[in-house]
Amino acid sequence: MLHLATTSAQPLATPVPDTSLAERLWLSVVSLGLVGLSVAAVAPTLLRDTAFWLGLLLLSAGTLGWSWLKFGRGPAGVRHNYLWQRGSTSRGVVAWLTAVALTGFYIVLYWWPQYLENLIRPLDGLSQTLRRKPADQWFLYGTFYTLAVLLMGARAYLKYRHSPYHRVRTLSVVFFQLGFAWLLPGLLLALQKPEFYFSYFWPLKYDYLFPGTVEYLVRDGQALGVFMVFWGAAMALVATPVLTYFFGKRWYCSWVCGCGGLAETAGDAYRHLSDKRRGAWRYEVSIVYTVLGFVVVTTALLWLNTYLGGTLLGRLSDEFSRTYGFVIGSVFSGVVGVGFYPILGNRVWCRYGCPMAAYLGLLQKHFSRFRITTNGGQCVSCGNCSNVCEMGIDVKQYAQRGEPIIRAACVGCGMCATACPRGVLNLENGPRQGRYQASQLIQAESLRILS
């Protein structure tokens, strides 16, 4: 026991290096920006706007400056250095404080937005210019969300600039978040049309195929509204299966989706925290497909209720959608999905709660041409691939056996292939025949040896 205690007290063989003076200066600018936003949240009207915009400017400049210093000047690529020794990335005090702050913001945003008035009102001018209406809590949230993707997208671009795949992927999620999830819905409101997100589809945007939403879009949007309904239905029921057949779920989860965009940019530092244990996988399967089933059943019941003139569910039809919106749309995707980044990893929502990820996953596993091929003969079992997998897949186990990785959870981010020092892993869109060929050959060889 004494020996164990003595051993555990020994210092690290390679201690965590001290933060450089330049890095501290940039992080201080970030901190001043957060202080400015905090002051704006409680300041009187005369000081509010100045503190808000100054805080936002300092936060943006500090983040970009720190990103350039940290990732733009040195070699590009995946870096595992000291991730499990730093408090910010190893569920330490800094990580828990960050999680509490993010969770607290989401709780206030969803249920007590009146306490955010001082942060909402400075955006009135921008909202009037873009949407022709005053700012509200959702415009504040959308602006902060988009800014996070832009700033941390610059960080991701600098960090993985050596990889054409990651450069294009990062630019793609930034483009769809800025253009399709922030600018375009605002312009639709300015034109007095229904707010509509062309980059979100059923079942993720679950109400887009609800009877009430369809009626609202057709009534208020007229010809454009009819196109919105067609777009939503066609993307969910036709384009999604076709695109997933050719490219796997990565075409959406890693290239288009705003949830995935935030995870791949702002959440990149936490990807190694995803639970790789088999028990976590069991929870994942049981929860995410339950959520998908709930959306499918709710949508079907609402349409049946509408067809029967409301005699099937009556007022319960509204309760179905409200229940889902509160439990899944607010608590899970917002409070837990983003607030728990520093504790559970950056794809908590995508892994355990997103119905679109479940839908895409079923298509990917059973019908898609996409897979990650491996060359077990070159694997050195370093574990880099498993460490960077944000979806909790123990990639190393597949690589050691030379088996292709065909998992419903895989979002095709490609980070495992990027982190591999031997080029063992490759993302491919090959013919469906032979997807399991490597594993089948191994099983056949094992049976031959045993017999």
TrEMBL record:
State the Gene Ontology terms under molecular function: 4 iron, 4 sulfur cluster binding; metal ion binding
Name the domain of life.
Answer: Bacteria
Q: Name one Pfam family in it.
A: Fer4_9
Instruction: Provide the alphabetized UniProt keywords.
Output: 4Fe-4S, Electron transport, Iron, Iron-sulfur, Membrane, Metal-binding, Transmembrane, Transmembrane helix, Transport
- Check the record and name the InterPro entries matching this protein: 4Fe4S_Fe-S-bd (IPR017896), 4Fe4S_Fe_S_CS (IPR017900), Electron_Trans/Redox (IPR051684)
Question: What is one cellular component GO term in this UniProt entry?
Answer: plasma membrane
Q: Is ATP-binding among this UniProt entry's keywords?
A: no
Where, by residue number, does the polypeptide cross the bilayer? 25-46, 52-71, 92-112, 138-158, 170-191, 223-247, 286-304, 324-344
Q: Show where the 4Fe-4S ferredoxin-type domain sits.
A: 370-398, 402-430
Q: What is this protein called?
A: 4Fe-4S ferredoxin
- Organism name: Solirubrum puertoriconensis
The organism that produces this protein has a lineage beginning with: Bacteria, Pseudomonadati, Bacteroidota, Cytophagia, Cytophagales
